[in-house]
Design a protein that fits this description.
Porin; elongated; alpha+beta; 4 helices
Length: 257
C-alpha cells in the first residue's frame, strides 16, 4: 500500500506548475546532560500548490535520524452556471415557437454565454506518507475529503474575519502503519492561506483526527514568510501528537519558480 500511495503522490506532483524550494534549520540543547554536541535539524522542502515534500536530517542526543514527509491533494471544485436575466424569457419563446425561434435563441446565447461560477464546495483525494524516526512515527494514509471555503467577506472587524475565514475540511481516511490492517480515521481540519500585502504570507492548518470519537490526535502546521524578489525568508512551526509528541520550530530560506 505504501508503494501505491507513493505512486499517487508522484502523479500529483508531476502536474505541478508552481514550485518553491527551500531549506530550513533549527538548533537546540541536548536533553541528556552527558551529551555536549548541539542538537540540530536541517531539512530540504519542496512546496507546490497541492503538494509538499520534506526530507530532514536530525541529530538528537548524539544520535542521527532521518525523517521525511510527502503529501499531496487533488480537489474538484463544484461550479454552477449563471445565465443572463432574459434567458428564461428566451427559453420560453423557443419552447413556444419551436424551430422558427431557434436561430434567434442561438444568437442570443452566443452573445450572452452563461457565466461559470465556482462554488465554495469541493471534494478531493488526499495522500500522505510520514516518518519521524526519532519519535518512532511511521505511517501512510489516503482518504477522501469534503471542503468548504468560507471567505467571511461580510464580517467587518478584521480580527474576527481573519479567524473565521479559510477552509473547513472533513475527511475520511485509511491509515497503514507498517503495512498492517488499515485503521479508519475521521479528520477535521481548519486551514488558511493569507497574504498580508505587500510581502507577508501566512499559511496554517489545525487538524484533529480520531478513530473512535473519544481520543483525538492534534496536528498543527504554521508558516509565515516574507517575500524578497524571488526569495522568501520564513519561520515554520509544527506539532504532531501521533502517540509521541513532535514539536519543531525552524527558520528557513526558499526560492520560488
Amino acid at each position: 500500500m505504501k508503494n501505491l500511495i507513493l505512486f499517487i503522490l508522484f502523479v500529483m506532483f508531476a502536474g505541478l506548475y508552481s514550485l518553491e524550494i527551500g531549506t530550513s534549520f533549527s538548533f537546540r540543547t541536548p536533553r541528556a546532560d552527558s551529551i555536549d554536541v548541539t542538537d540540530y535539524e536541517i531539512a530540504l522542502e519542496v512546496v507546490t500548490e497541492n503538494g509538499y515534500l520534506e526530507i530532514e536530517k536530525e541529530l538528537e542526543n548524539g544520535q542521527h535520524f532521518f525523517n521525511y514527509e510527502m503529501k499531496a491533494e487533488y480537489s474538484y471544485r463544484f461550479k454552477r452556471k449563471k445565465y443572463h436575466p432574459e434567458y428564461l424569457e428566451q427559453k420560453k419563446m423557443l419552447e413556444k415557437y419551436g424551430e422558427s425561434q431557434q436561430v434567434w435563441f442561438d444568437f442570443f446565447m452566443k452573445q450572452n454565454p452563461p457565466e461559470i461560477i465556482e462554488t465554495p464546495f469541493s471534494i478531493g483525494l488526499s495522500t500522505r506518507t510520514l516518518e519521524i524516526s526519532s519519535r518512532d512515527v511511521k505511517f501512510s494514509e489516503i482518504g477522501l475529503n469534503c471542503k468548504y471555503e468560507y471567505k467571511a467577506s461580510q464580517i467587518k472587524f478584521f480580527l474576527f474575519r481573519y479567524i473565521s475565514k479559510g477552509n473547513y475540511i472533513v475527511a475520511a481516511k485509511n491509515r497503514w502503519i507498517d503495512n498492517e490492517t488499515p485503521e479508519q480515521l475521521l479528520v477535521l481540519t481548519k486551514s488558511l492561506k493569507y497574504k498580508f500585502k505587500p510581502i507577508f504570507d501566512i499559511d496554517y492548518a489545525l487538524s484533529y483526527s480520531t478513530m473512535d470519537l473519544k481520543y483525538w490526535e492534534k496536528e498543527v502546521a504554521f508558516r509565515v514568510s516574507a517575500d524578497i524578489y524571488f526569495f522568501a525568508v520564513y519561520f515554520r512551526y509544527s506539532l504532531k501528537e501521533f502517540g509521541s509528541v513532535s514539536q519543531v520550530g525552524k527558520m528557513g530560506i526558499s526560492v520560488k519558480f
